[in-house]
Amino acid sequence: MKVCVFGANGYVGASVYKSLRKIPSINVSGTYLREPSLFDELYKLDINEPESFSSYYKQENPDVVIWSVMDGPNEHMLTDQGLMHLLTFLTPETKLIYISSDFVYSDGKGPYDEEDSLSTLPDDHLFSSYTNAKIKAEHLINNELSNYVILRAGPIYGENQIGKLDDRTDKLSYHLRSDKSIAFRDDLIRTFVHVEDLASVITELVQNDVTGVYNTGQSESKSYYQFMRLMAEQLGYNPNFVEKESEYEKVDQEIPKDTSLITKKITEITKQKFR
Ligand SMILES: NC(=O)c1ccc[n+]([C@@H]2O[C@H](COP(=O)([O-])OP(=O)(O)OC[C@H]3O[C@@H](n4cnc5c(N)ncnc54)[C@H](OP(=O)(O)O)[C@@H]3O)[C@@H](O)[C@H]2O)c1
């Protein structure tokens, strides 16, 4: 079986790529964009560039494609160009596994299940490029394809297979190492997912016939403040150095408050237990 990981140089993609490489029956290739590449054999590719995308895709002709790319404020280009190219190449036999976000539920009144409607943000909103691009991508995939899995994830955390931590935990341990306090919001409720759990569920989905849309992550949601206190404990630091951040910041109105996810469906259809 041939599998392509778009974004194999990234936080999630690197773990997915490494997990798949351990499976003898899978022939995996992956892409990166910016130097340096984490793995020698990755293919340098701008997914938005039609010619290079086309030559890479025709050369690989995969059975499964994993979409693990992200580009913050330019996310709309990934959907309007990169994903559009990909859709023209996918055959009904090729399975697409697309990583989406809890921000598709951006009205922020969770917990949400997979059937809840998605809400776009106004163009001038801080998160509109990312959120609206993810929603558009989901609609495109849903309308054009049948052989696909969309995995919606909240904040992804933990050490990945190349020893990289997510930025928030990295910042947390940097502060606590030097006995400095650090503050996180207690009013923003999320469903956190460990990077290795996400990589492992993707590895399972590569090898089975499951399709559809699934929320991923822990069964219980937490605020950033609650979650980071737990992380501090797990990392062996004093959790009392984690404080509550002021809720009265300027950006306060901008951030969806509760994007927590009901994740029962994925645990019923896969073997994955989310830590
Ligand atoms: N991290 C989270 O908390 C979180 C939460 C919810 C959903 N997600 C989703 O999870 C997926 C993976 O995210 P991540 O955290 O692993 O992000 P990441 O570490 O930023 O990795 C994204 C990768 O995308 C690649 N990329 C960006 N623009 C590209 C382009 N034009 N052509 C080709 N490659 C391009 C980058 O390649 P280079 O490194 O080579 O530049 C990068 O490695 C994304 O779909 C994201 O939306 C992430």
Automatic annotation (TrEMBL):
Annotated NAD-dependent epimerase/dehydratase domain residues: 3-217
Gene3D superfamilies linked: NAD(P)-binding Rossmann-like Domain
Protein's recorded name: dTDP-4-dehydrorhamnose reductase
Species name: Virgibacillus profundi
